[in-house]
Amino acid sequence: IRAEAVYAARHEMARSVDDVLSRRTRARLLARDASAAAAEDVAQLIAPIIGLSEAQARAQAADYRRSVELERSSADLPPTAFAMASAAPKEAEDA
Predict the structure, then answer these.
(1) CA dist list (Å): 11 to 23, 70, 72
(2) Dihedrals φ, ψ of 52, to 5°?
């Protein structure tokens, strides 16, 4: 996904994290929870290419993750196995 994100920013005029993950790579459609997990990495990769500050990149990644979660919860979809596996260590840390 990293190479695709950079390619989208450099050659396809992608302008945001959502643009890259939803439209250019279709990661949101094909792997919703994995794309949310990758949002921060994608933001950091494309930020210098599309002229985002570090704060803007972090905000776009957070907005994307919120949007994915809202989509999942409003459709009453269960978390995917990927989301459950990636959340397990975080829940253990919070306990």
Answers:
(1) 14, 30, 30
(2) -95, 145
- Which residue segment(s) compose the domain that 57 sits in? 2-94
Q: Render pLDDT for 9-21 as a digit per residue (tens, 0 to 9).
A: 999 999 999 999 9
Residue 65 makes CB contacts below 8 A (sequence gap 6+) with: 36, 39
Distance from C-alpha of 72 to C-alpha of 65, rounded to nearest angstrom? 11
Q: How does DSSP classify residue 95?
A: -
Please state the domain count of the chain.
Answer: 1
Q: What are phi and psi of 18, to 5 degrees?
A: -60, -45
- 52-87: b or e for each residue (b if 16 or more CB lie within 10 Å)? beeeebbebbeebbebbeeebeeeeeeeeeebeeee
Angle at 7 between CA 55 and CA 19, to 5 degrees: 55
DSSP 26-55: -HHHH-HHHHHHHHHHHHHHHHHHHT--HH
Q: What is the pTM of this model?
A: 0.77
